[in-house]
Amino acid sequence: MRQLASKWLKTKALLRHPYTAVYVPETCLYSEEELRMMLRRHAFVFIKPVKGGGGNGVMRVAKERREYTCTRMEQTYRFRHFRALTAEISSLRLQRPYLIQQGIPLASIQGRPVDYRVKVVKAGQKWVFRAVVARQARPGLVITNLCKGGKLLRGTTALRTIYPRQLARRKRREIVNLTLRCIPILERRFPGIGQLGFDYGLDPNGRVWILEVNTRPQ
Known about the structure:
By secondary structure, this protein is of the alpha+beta class. It is built from six helices and twelve strands.
């Protein structure tokens, strides 16, 4: 069964198709100039390793009035100058390639961000849904990973907690249908894959975003 570690390759595959591209936050490979441009366009961004999982190495970066902030786990660093910010990021990156992704303000439960994991596996010639669940971030964190203390919730329960019942039902259907559209795109681009884990974010208005796709979903 083929596995593909690079988040960038999977993101590019979805960006090439007009239907799925509109669901993908603006994403690019990390450089200081790209970070400067992204912070001009977005309220905040996430910087994360091209290869990696479990929320390891993920940073939330924002420009707030006259300073920059960089949050990693519970720790937030503050900088008056952009060069001081990028020097700190360079020390945290450990020379690995990173992505910059437009930050999506996730709808929350009890003030804790929530995202959604959809897991599908290939059984013979058919793809089968194995899970549609939600993950609620641990208090004080902006990442939802279960291995970092996130809480597992039923997907339908989380959606109904955040949105009116009919909207929650529509959003679940949209996530399932989007998954079905993404699978053949990724399978054509990466023959041999046999399982996929889609991480979706929904903002307070209910817009669906594809945050990440994994070929080794936990």
